[in-house]
Every structure is written in structure tokens, then in C-alpha cells.
Amino acid sequence: MGHKDDASLALNELRKESQDLYNRIHSIAEDAAFVDQVYRSYSRLPLIPNMRCGAWYTNPDTASNERAYFKSTDGHTGNWSFNLRRPNLHILPLICAHAGLLLVDSTRAGKRIPDALSKTVPIWCAVINRAVLKTTSNLNVGTDTWNTKLYTPPGVVSAQEHDQIEQELDGWADDLATSFYVLPKLQYPLRPIWITPSTTIFPKFPDTDAERRFYPIICISASKQVLDGIERRITGFAYIQGSGDDHELWSMGLTPAQFWKHKQTLLRTNRNELPTLVQALTSPNTLSTRIDSNSNASFHPTLIQHVHGRLSICTTHDLSSPLGDGSAVVYLTSADHAPPALKDHPRVLYIQTPQGKKGQHHFLHTVLPQVMPFIFLHLQNTRRVCIACETGTDTSIGVAIAALIKFFDDSGEFCGEYEYERESVLSKDDIKTRLHWIITSCPQANPSRTTLKRVNEFLLSPPEFLLPHQKSFSPSAVPNPSPNES
């Protein structure tokens, strides 16, 4: 019995150390120093984080403003995918302009390289290369020398798994080539390269086009692989592998931006005083937090370019300033009130959206039926409509998809009718295409499967399925704006 108690105590102590704020922040700083070392070796290449974890390790002063969204789940064994909801095509112009890229991510105990870098990115490179071959007639090099091979890190991905992934590549490339997305012309194929803290020699790449054969996508796995994920340092902290992962469990509300802004102060603070400092930095009443949270407060929505910016997306955080005359806003939030500048505004539709299962029922039977007439009214009056939710990536995207289906034709023109009459029966492919319109302009868009399912139900269900819940909501049910609002 004593041995079990000892083991339990040891496990609890290990867990406590792994969640310790002091250990996490100092571990991140150590890993970030390694990332900076790699960056200095390839300073001509842009440095971008793979969200969300990678942002902890990339100094905003040296990193590009772009972000990548490669998910480990798209590389999990048996679940491999080139996900058209996360195509990451927005980083291709950056790669072409600089002839390569540095991509930063990390992983917890048990792995040397995260699945996002060891499999998702290699899949992405190979699929992009094959899709370019299918869609571009005049390549910079001959088609026989255009490399479409799959490259995965030796010792991390088994030969069997490599072969299984390779069998799927042409199908994914066909899906990409026939989708709405437009691929830029690449002069050279993409090729993933891996660098970890155990890398002894950083590879060199040609500086001139005459010698270049590919664009290197240098995947930096920031954290050192250590036994059990923890390694004690003589400097007084326990190194935690992949400390930036799952920051909700340990960060006390601290964000990567706040970490980098106050990095030296955080690192100089002793273990006992650190939680108090972080609480002060993350308090909504502190000047630091007000400045951070209002950094985008001048109302900068992301315009959906395919519909000429008539619809746009943003977070509710971005909407603390008054609206321009040509704008209307759909404001979706779990908060019980809108900001003072937007409260009772005639061109703001505020809807409180509950969380969880109740929220999904509410989204289908209340949010979508109420929002559609409001959006249509303001589009008719030649206004731009911004759709805001707390993340700017989920609920607002679902609303935008429904509006794009209902009020815009297949070429992205406003049809001027409450229900656009299409020549063929509406299908899930039409809905997917509208999502691709959004992602092209707003790469961080990431609606949940549940949100997409509710949107499909709203758009594809027979009228009697929704009618009892929405019979009071039609274009005529929304009051016409007063002359001052028009």
C-alpha cells in the first residue's frame, strides 16, 4: 500500500510542477531563445507561428504578421487529411516572395515533433505541389522535374504510415484543384525541412534562383524532448516540454502578446509573486490590458472579398467604436449587454447567444431566423454588414455562410431578393463553396462541425421544419430605417 501512496504522491507532484506558472514561463523563454537562434540563421525567411501554440515562441518584433493554421488532428494516424476548411493558401504569397518560410510549433512529452509539423505540413506541401501541376500549364521547370513526392521526418513517421498517406495525395489534390480556391503560380515546389533542439547542423539552402530546386518550409519544433516531459534546471525551475500548449490550464489569462510585451518583468519575478503579477497584467481594469484589448478597437472587420466587402467578419472585441454611416452590425455574444457605443443603435442587431447545446438550438431557431431579415434590409439599403461573435471564427462564420447563400448569386453579386432563386437545387457543395469564399479572405475562420450542421439544417430543411420557430421573422417584420438611418 505504501508503494502505491508514494507513486500517487510522486504523480501529483509531477502534475503540480507541470502546471506551475513559473515553470511554464521560463520553459517558454528557453524554447523561444532556440527559435530565435534558428531565425538568425535564416533571417531572410519570414517567421510565422502555427496557431495557437506557436505564438508563445515567436517574438512579435521578428515574426511576420501572418499566422498558419495547421492542425495536428489532420495528421493523426488514420485521420490524415488535406482539409479544405484549413487550406493555409494565404501563406503561399509570403513563401513565393521570400523563397521559403520558417514555421514554429511545439509538442508535449512523448514526441520530438508535433503531428502538425511531421504529417499535416508534409501532406500540405505534397498536395499543393500536385494541385499546382494539375492547374498550371507553364511551370518554371519541366513537369518531369516538378517534385511531388511526400517527405516526412525519418524516425518520426513510419514507412508504413508514409505509404498510406501517399496513396491519398492525388485525391486530395483533385479536391483542391476543382475547388473555389485559386492557387498562385509557384516557381518551385514546396518541401518540408525539420529543425529541433537536437539538430546539430542547420541545413543550408541556395540563395539564387539558378541553384534553387524547391522552397524550403522549415518546420521548427521549439521544445526539447525530455523524459516524462519535465527536466529540472540548476537555475531553479523545472523545464516543461511544450509549455505553450493548452495554455488555458496554466496561464491565468495571460496571452502570448502579453507574455512578449512584459517578458523581462515576468522572468525577473520570483515564483511566489508571479501569480499576483499575472493577475495584475490580465485584469480588465489595468491600463496594459485596456491597451492590448483595444488595439483593434477602430473597427477593422475582415471583408469577404468575393462579395466586394458587402459582408465582413470580426470579433465583438473589435467593435467598441461607433459605426460609420454605411455600416450595420450583427452582434452575437454570451454577454447580457452590448458595449455603450452600440447599445440601442438602430443599425446594430444584438442577440445574446447561450453556450453549449442550448446555444446550438438557439442558433438554429432564433439567431439565424432573426439575423437574415436584418442583413437583407441593410444590404438592400447598400450598407455593408459586419457579423461579429466573440471569437470571430465560429458563430459569425455560420451566419455569414447562410447570408451568402440566401442573398448572393454564385458569382458573388447581391441578388436583391430575400430568397435567391438558383437554377439548380441547393446542395451541401454550394454551402462549402460559400465557406471557401470566407476562408479565402479570413483564413482564421474555423466554424465548428456543430455550427456547420445547424447552418445546413437551416438552409436545406423543408420550411415546415423551421416555420413554427420563425414565422414572426421575415423581411417585412424588420422595421424600415428612419430617414436619418438610410
- Record field, number of beta strands: 11
Q: State mean pLDDT (0 to 100 scale).
A: 86
Unreliable segments of 5+ consecutive residues: 287-299, 468-486
Question: Can you tell me the overall shape?
Answer: globular
Largest sheet: 5 strands, mixed
Spatially, the strands of the biggest sheet line up as 7-8-11-9-10
**Alpha carbon gyration radius:** 25 Å
Residues in β-strands, percent? 5-15%
Please identify the structural class as seen in this structure. alpha/beta
Order of helices and strands: HHEHEHHHEEEEHHHHEEEEHEHHHH
Number of helices: 15
Helix content: 25-40%
In angstroms, what separates the terminal alpha carbons? 78 Å
Distinctive features:
38% helix; globular; 486 residues; alpha/beta; single chain; four-stranded parallel β-sheet
Please tell me about this protein's structure.
The protein has 486 residues and is α/β, with parallel strands linked by helices. 38% of the residues lie in helices and 11% in strands. It has helices at residues 2-19, 21-41, 92-98, 115-135, 159-166, 169-177, 256-261, 263-268, 274-282, 287-293, 356-380, 395-407, 428-441, 449-460, 463-470; strands spanning 47-49, 101-105, 190-195, 215-221, 230-232, 238-240, 302-303, 311-315, 327-333, 348-352, 384-389. A 5-stranded mixed sheet has the order 7-8-11-9-10, with helices on one face. Residues 287-299 and 468-486 have low confidence and may be disordered.
